[in-house]
Amino acid sequence: MNGPEHAHAQRRTELDGASTPHPLSCRLARPLSIAFVIMSSHYIAYSTLEERLGEDHTLFTSLQNHASKPEISIVPPFLDPETAYAQYDILIMKSLWNYHLDGLRIAAWLTKFTEPQTSMKRPPLLLNCPEVILWNLKKGNYLLELETSGFKIPETRVFNSFSGSEGLLTYLEFSPGTEKIWGSEGAVVVKPMISASGHSTFKLAQGEVLTESQIEMIKEMEKKQGGIIMQEYLKEIMKGEWSMIYIGGSYSHSLLKVPKQRISEDSDTQEFRCQVRYGGTQDDTQDPPQVAREIGDQLICWLEKRFGEHGVAYVRIDGLLRAATKPESGQLEFVIMEVECIEPYLYWNQRGGEYGLARFVDRVIFRVDGGHEDDRN
Q1: pLDDT digits (tens, 9 = 90+) for 256-293
Q2: ω into residue 98 within 30 of 0, thus cis?
Q3: Spatial distance between the Cα atoms of 87 and 72, rounded to a whole number of angstroms
Q4: Which residues are CB-neighbours of 238 under 8 A, at least 6 positions away?
């Protein structure tokens, strides 16, 4: 194994040290130096540390209170990897809120971490590792790779450019094979290749005319967000999307996110995005169905084979249930909608989130047992 994967594995081995379960800072004979990477625009927009870190303020506090007293900082991205981050042992990328607004620049910056470092004797360990984040940046590409590996995804098409909104409509109307992407509901979902939290995502029905705002969204997708994804609209989303959180390669907790329900047939167009900002609700009282957990576990194994055992420190797998396309495989199948490895909301405050937080601190950051049993099977 050579190149960036070797460099990441070497750094992980160095940090893990001996197999004895002592805090990492003790093995290094000094406090661990950790930095949260936050977009400068997000940092400036808010005045308090809690606002800037969002849900990760809880993680920040947990690290502060750790017995080994690590040194914790906040740093921006886009600085020189060889000089600006050399003092840190770990860079936590999970708080990179709104990265998608400057996604192409993020990609160029992270690529530098995968190149041989000439002046740094000990480059920082990125969580998640840069190879994982670069893979995860372009949603359409990684989803199609998962489909090739046998996972179920919505019917998906990926485009770098449509030469404007007219090109998109022409493709949908006249290109061969587009009947699949329209699906049984006669609608597609259009979203940026690099996106998060439902940003610039909209549903388009057959025969529908694009609005001015949608035309502007398409222009932005082409210029700044790495291209365009079109996906079959799945009506099953209205029953909810499961979010399953895995920390350090093990299942932690989950919740069901349900879009805002239409009050009456006379109300406005049905909202299909399930984020709270769009009126969605969250239910953490249920456990995911067995078929969802099975696919989630299989995907974790796939990621570990793809990026190494420690490549993915945290991930949220989003998907929904639908009637199986092949009856012999069972009544229901789990369709992967997204795999979030960059700055997913991990719901530390939901049922099971405390376990996930403790596991992140003890198993991922400090590599010790911490007394938390693996009871999530």
Answers
A1: 998 877 554 444 467 766 666 666 778 899 999 999 99
A2: no
A3: 11
A4: 258, 259, 261, 270, 272
Candidates 100, 78, 71; CA nearest to 342 is 100
pLDDT recorded at residue 22: 32
Q: Which residues contact 197 (CB under 8 A, 6 or more apart)?
A: 275, 277
Q: Which residue has the tokens 């700055």?
A: 343
Name the 3-class secondary structure at 216. Answer: helix
Per-residue three-class SS string for 117-135:
CCCCCCCCEEECCHHHHHH
Q: Residue 127 to residues 36, 135, 253, 301: CA-CA distances in angstroms? A: 10, 14, 19, 18
pLDDT digits (tens, 9 = 90+) for 64-113: 999 999 999 999 999 998 889 989 999 999 999 988 888 889 999 999 99
DSSP letter string, 226-277: S-EEEEE--GGGGG-EEEEEEETTEEEEEEEEEPPPPS-TTSSSPP---SGG
**Burial readout 80-94 (b: 16 or more C-beta within 10 A, e: otherwise):** ebeeebeebbbbbbb
* Number of continuous H segments (helices) and E segments (strands) in the chain: 13, 13
Report how far residue 285's alpha carbon sits from residue 281's, in angstroms, rounded to the nearest whole number: 12
The H or E element spanning position 102 is: none
For the chain, strand residue ranges (E) read: 33-37, 71-75, 90-92, 125-127, 156-159, 187-192, 202-205, 228-232, 241-247, 250-258, 281-283, 314-323, 332-340
pLDDT reported for residue 12: 47
Displacement of CA 59 from its chain's centroid (Å): 17
Instruction: Name the nearest CA neighbour of 178 among 128, 232, 120, 116.
Output: 232
Amino acid found at 273: R
Q: What is the pTM of this model?
A: 0.83
